[in-house]
Specification:
The structure is a homodimer. Chain A starts with 9 loop residues before the first strand and ends with a helix. Chain A folds into two domains: 357 residues, FAD/NAD(P)-binding domain (3-Layer(bba) Sandwich); 124 residues, Succinate dehydrogenase/fumarate reductase flavoprotein, catalytic domain (Flavocytochrome C3, Chain A, domain 1, Alpha-Beta Complex), CATH 3.90.700. Chain A is elongated, with a radius of gyration of 23 Å. Chain A is α/β, with parallel strands linked by helices. Chain A contains twelve helices and 21 strands. Helix content of chain A is 27%, strand content 21%. At the A-B interface, helix 8 and helix 11 of A face helix 8 and helix 11 of B.
Amino acid sequence: MTEPNLHQLFPASEVPQWDSETDVIIIGFGATGVCAAIEAANAGASVTIFERNSGSGGASALSGGEIYIGGSGGSDAQRAAGFEDSTEDLAAYLKAAGGPYHDPAKCDLYAAESLNHYQWLKDQGIPYRGNYLPGKHIEPTDESTLIWSGSEAAAPFCNVAKPAPRGHVIQHMGWGGGRPLIDILEQRARDLGAKVVVDARAIALIADGERIVGTVFRIDNQLHFARANKGVVLATGGFALNEDMRRRYCPETFKINSPIGDKDDGIGIMLGMAAGGDAVHMEQFFTTCPWTMPESHAYGVFVNQAGQRFINEDCYHGRVSRVAVDQMGDRVYQLLDVAHFVQPLELAGITIAGTGDTWEEVEAELEMPEGTLSTTMAFYNKHAAEGRDPLFDKRAPILTPLDQGPFIALELNFETSYFSFFTLGGLRTSADAEVLDRAGQPIAGLYAAGRCTSGLPAWGHGYSSGLSLADCTFFGRRAGAKAALSTS
Amino acid sequence: MTEPNLHQLFPASEVPQWDSETDVIIIGFGATGVCAAIEAANAGASVTIFERNSGSGGASALSGGEIYIGGSGGSDAQRAAGFEDSTEDLAAYLKAAGGPYHDPAKCDLYAAESLNHYQWLKDQGIPYRGNYLPGKHIEPTDESTLIWSGSEAAAPFCNVAKPAPRGHVIQHMGWGGGRPLIDILEQRARDLGAKVVVDARAIALIADGERIVGTVFRIDNQLHFARANKGVVLATGGFALNEDMRRRYCPETFKINSPIGDKDDGIGIMLGMAAGGDAVHMEQFFTTCPWTMPESHAYGVFVNQAGQRFINEDCYHGRVSRVAVDQMGDRVYQLLDVAHFVQPLELAGITIAGTGDTWEEVEAELEMPEGTLSTTMAFYNKHAAEGRDPLFDKRAPILTPLDQGPFIALELNFETSYFSFFTLGGLRTSADAEVLDRAGQPIAGLYAAGRCTSGLPAWGHGYSSGLSLADCTFFGRRAGAKAALSTS
């Protein structure tokens, strides 16, 4: 027998015995996998989820449980708070957020179906309080539903789509709504009869001719040959925790140091490529340093080591952080006045690099050339007092003069501050979650969604909170449904 | 019979008849292919070059025929001009030039072997006059040999490796030394018995089990099954002329408009991936707008639409251009005083966007906010007069105050100026030019070099003239030699 391995399809003809059989195999038990399981079961298929960890969750359970939702006039929460939201605006925003990497078909489909998806989530039992929480938050610390979770109200996004808040967060006290979100969906999948096999590591896909018909797993150090009568769904996440893949496909992430994930080893991408799948946009990544915590820090100004601003700071924290990482050198500075300063969270690894009663004093403490940072701030303050930012079009109320000292310069250091990241590139899939080959044709029997694919959150520079869970849950559902209807 | 296609290996068992047989098949007749042919023939193999065009050349023949050479104490031309050049400095420069995408093994090997490679080129009959041409040139317009062709003397490169000029140009009057370079190498390959088949389009690789044993071509609209007893060398160039591949793998190139190439359709990359090859760094590209022509324009200053400088302008024109394309908006401005201004080449598509007796007037003509560009230039001039650039460490003599008007602002527009580009990503290969699979193992019988691989010129932000031809000729040689020694 050929030794099964990640990089080759294993021929069905060499399977010594089928150790299990199901209609739909789902590899990975995060948000993508569990939604795929529910929809495959709803379509009448038998389903088995194989998970390499000892339980459900994946990276999704580490998240805030926030899902990017809108369009079709607005959700209940949006409308209650006075926000109309058209499908066209949502689609336009999604395309701008994906930048050069967006998939138009996925953006259009998700924009059209987003409210139906929200209803589906509620139907599974996900609770939403329905209220709006104004301000700038990474996640609500109370049970609120609706927050601004992207760069909707900031240039250039506000010029291409009418802004609305679209982050919809599960009703859950405090941070970390991802865990209860998964727990509810897991229970639903189990109620529908999905089987779960944990501590199972995928080794290879099994092919019968052109069709994927199963998966080889390693379970209890034994090979396990699992047959899928209808299809295999890859739901394994990105490759933030696979250093070899990062070096080959996304080496800019070595400029920062804090991968987010839960065994995100990129295995689904490798399995998909072995089946002839096409991996795209592999160099794209999300990063953020939690510089808007405390919230008052959102009023600060960022400069690079040349003392130049580089972004309108009213953008989403991840967009600002991603552009920061593009700057020269190993750090950027966030400038604050004492009125807005609060000691940053210790976990952020943000340090005080300089202080002064004037910006000239701060400039000198940072050992910046005279006339750099101080000129930047004089120019900024002059126009902020007039309510405008002629360079980057930052908007009020985040736009406010920082002209009453003392002042503080915080250092966000790419090596030592908490620049968390995960990867965004992955398999190219259709809007039906079919894995496409390099000729653009679906690979029979193979489906994928979530961060082992390139989907709605395609571009770190345009990321918005809730895009990844939107992508995982929505296209995970489509993967499960499509697989269940597959005929060999 | 299966229809042969780019995306699948064609099984040898289905070959209806072998239409030709040779030891080494080389696909592509540019610099890579011709060097592979010479070395395969030198190793005793029979060789056939298949080329989709009607003659030799490829993108290499469109180049200046400049090859990046140095190390081992310096070439004859370097030493005659007083430049010592250590292997360590060359290796360090190559690694810095490749940025996060460099392949350490290729950089180290090329640095160690570069002078031997130069001798080999001479042995094939490439003439070098041996003299040094000081100044800043895209290509010599006379027969000179040695020019500064990268960012060696500019920060940050000059801080990691002792600078030396390393661009070695074939003796040839005027631009376009690539064509005579290829002609000489072609004659050499033909003298050694290499066969050439033109107007032959590669369709699929042929595999016998795990080994590549031939190629299906389309010639005169007929399928042609070519057997390779020892190996197949992919030498087909990048994918600058394949819009579908650009959209999938390198979409940022749609910000600019002038691909350089000669049917560079990425076919070698697709063939290699179909054989299990690993394509890496596919989002990287080279671009340049010929802003240093006339040469006096090298003394200018670049600003983005916010009126901010973004680079030390004494870097290589391609590095400056690549960072320019990263800037917001659709253009950057090059600022000059009248002493340095000459009407730009018409082909560059560079226009005069504003003029004035003071930088304040230029700023107003460009409709930039008051105090942006003018402050940038006041700061620049103040320090340039002191011989320093505290922001970007630009060095004299390129660093010079621009404080005697009238002044001119040239517009380099990403859409309408001549931002030429080609792609840098491709197959991952060993330093012996073996195509590696996703597990990092060589694919038996398959070799590749040049722009269908990721090689020495891995990163547009660090590109230097001569890197691509160095890569093509050196690793092309290794591909041919290694293929000739292959045993099935």
